[in-house]
Amino acid sequence: MPDPLPARFASTEESRAAWWRDAVVYQIYPRSFADSNGDGIGDLPGITSRVPYLASLGIDAVWLSPFYPSALADGGYDVDDYRDVDPRLGTLHDFDELVAAFHRVDIRVMVDIVPNHSSNRHQWFRDALASPPGSPERARYVFRDGRGEAGELPPSDWPSHFGTSAWTGTQDLDGTPGQWYLHLFSPEQPDFNWDNREVQLDFLTTLRFWADRGVDGFRVDVAHALKKDLSEPLRSKPAFVDFDNPLSGDDVLFDRNEVHSVYREWRTLFDEYDPPRFAVAEAWVRPERRVLYARADGLGQAFNFDLLRADWDAEAFRSVIDQNLEMARESGSSSTWVLSNHDVVRHATRFGLPKGTDLHSWLLSNGVAPALDRSVGLRRARAATMLVLALPGSTYIYQGEELGLAEVADIPADQIQDPIWERTAHTGKGRDGSRVPLPWDPHLPSFGFGTGGAHLPQPAWFADLSVGAQSTVEGSTFEMYREAIAHRTRLHTSDELRWTSGSPSGVLDFERPNGWRSITNLGTEPYRLPELEVILSSGPLSGQFLPPDTTAWMILHGTRANSWTRELPTGS
Ligand code: NOJ
Ligand code: CA
Questions:
Q1: Cβ atoms within 10 Å, residue 122
Q2: Cα 553 vs. chain centroid, distance in angstroms?
Q3: CA 280 / ligand 2 centre spacing (Å)
Q4: Apex CA 223: angle with CA 219 and CA 225, to 5°?
Q5: Phi and psi (nearest 5°) for 401?
Q6: Closest Cα to atom 6, ligand 1: which residue?
């Protein structure tokens, strides 16, 4: 079992419990992080071997995407067994060693909980298929008779996230067509019936299993989907658009009010631990509804995905920031900031494409049309990262963004792994381009990811962005992340933020306690900086001017901790 918690964890009661409020959390996609045994797949010992790297980055916590046994129909989000490690990724003993290694350097560990669906190889789903309609085994999932004379049509018009129907027909033991089961994602991901007490209790057992092993927190997959309106006749819902569910909480499939009863029960369990276990909801809901997931009697925090959809535009960023800080006040939680994750096109690429680019079509063009300006993208990505790191709340970093990685848009069709590709008849390329194994060393095979190649092809341009090419190189993206996180850890003391007045449109300029000031130029003209000491900038400055697509952090000397500066110089 993991070592006892190190000294820093045992500071005051309150800060121990609230570590997550302003944490910098690093997301690891385990299969693509580091491969210890040369089979081309990243694994737990690989992650443990890179703990010094993550410690040197200065992060507070890691979140591991699923590492459970899985046929990888959806990158591990199809879980065969919630309380084990995929043998290709290691063992439970490896997991305990990983947790101990992170705790030794004061880094907390979060794991991904996937409660909406299991995989079709999960024992319960096998049992369900082997049992008759109406049996307790089937009641753990959502089985229904088909429509049409012989039940040949799906029970409702509900679509799957990954294309076509959310229902798949089964065969009875004698080979005749049987009932249909529900899957909001791929057919290999049957949805649980969350009205079933056995399902509810089994997830409590899973949460306890990992919490007892020393896990500090949980990221909850599609937290808004667990409860559906399954009353007969099933209501129609032919299409869904994320973020578009009604505010009433009475959508057929998503963000239903009763989902919070699940999380209230989880919270009671989390609070039995000392310090209480932490959780963050992945809920693609309207911003106003996010507050319900973030409340202290619920999961406690919710991802804010608004910046994944924001253009490089000062007004867009500012309104996202204001709205989220307000919602944090309302929920009593803290804000979260996300620029990249394993489901979206990396931000160094998004910000290098013309405004309004349809990312799906761009990926389908293999990243050719419209043309990507990689240097603009990276410049803006760095500026955006420093901007969000200066904000109150916690920041979620996705592996590789600290290297300035761009999306790999030209993965050949025959190597695509994402189920979206097949399920959409090759009209959606999916998310593999953000999941390519990391480049560690410019000179080694598979750029040091492992000795046996990489499970997705790495482009030649990874060499210049590898850890080895950037580490200790002044001004590199990696060194910028390290420095920014170190300053933030030192300067951040409370959730307050004040916009300064008088800056032109296109410039985001705010002050935090301790005389810490962050200015981002999202406009097209250089901006004259106030006469303060610059402690870090995301790109070169021209004298006293902040060029477009750049963030500078400044500090007013002589300010006491927790005090605000009085007169704010506003530049001109
Ligand atoms: C959200 C995860 O982030 C994504 O990768 C996955 O495909 C779906 N949930 C389904 O589990
Ligand atoms: Ca491996």
A1: 23
A2: 26
A3: 28
A4: 155
A5: -70, -25
A6: 77
Q: DSSP labels for 344-379?
A: S--HHHHTTS-TT--HHHHHHTTT-SSPP-HHHHHH
| DSSP 8-state assignment for residue 542 | B
Q: How far apart are CA 323 and CA 325, in angstroms?
A: 6
For residue 149, indicate whether it is catalytic.
no
432: annotated active-site residue: no
With a 6 A CB cut-off, is 221 part of the ligand 1 pocket? yes
Distance in Å, CA 68 to ligand 2 centroid:
14
Mutate to test the pocket of ligand 1, among 185, 218, 340, 431 (most ligand atoms within 8 A of CB): 185
- Which pLDDT score is estimated for 163? 84
**Would the CB of 185 count as within 6 Å of ligand 1?**
yes
Answer whether 390's CB lies under 8 Å from 518's CB: yes
User: What confidence score (pLDDT) does residue 243 get?
Assistant: 66
Please indicate whether residue 418, judged by its CB atom, sits closer than 6 Å to ligand 1.
Answer: no
For 227-290, give the DSSP string: ----PSSPPP-----TT-S-TTS--SSSS-TTHHHHHHHHHHHHTTSSSPPEEEE-----HHHH
Nearest to 547 by CA among 358, 332, 380: 380
What tens digit of pLDDT does each residue of 287-338 get?
A: 899 999 999 999 999 999 999 999 999 999 999 999 999 999 999 999 999 9
Ligand 1 centre from 470 Cα, in Å? 31
pLDDT attached to residue 8: 40
Distance CA 39, CA 113 (A): 26
Predicted pLDDT of residue 561: 42
Euclidean distance between CA atoms 327 and 321, whole angstroms: 10
Q: Choose among 431, 384, 381, 433: nearest CA to 403.
A: 381
Take residue 219 and report the two structure tokens written for it.
């990221």
pTM of the model: 0.95
Looking at the CA of residue 117, tell me the nearest atom of ligand 1: 11
10-residue mean pLDDT profile of the chain (572 residues): values are 40 80 98 98 98 98 98 97 98 98 98 98 98 97 96 96 94 89 97 98 98 98 97 93 79 96 98 97 93 96 96 97 96 97 98 96 97 98 98 98 98 96 94 98 98 97 98 97 97 93 94 95 97 96 96 79 40 34
Two tokens at 197? 């007490």
Q: Are 458 and 400 in contact (CB under 8 A)?
A: no
Helix 314-331 × helix 287-294 angle, to 10°: 30
DSSP H or E run through 45: helix 44-49
CB 553 within 8 A of CB 386: yes
**Active-site residue among 13, 272, 330, 358?**
272
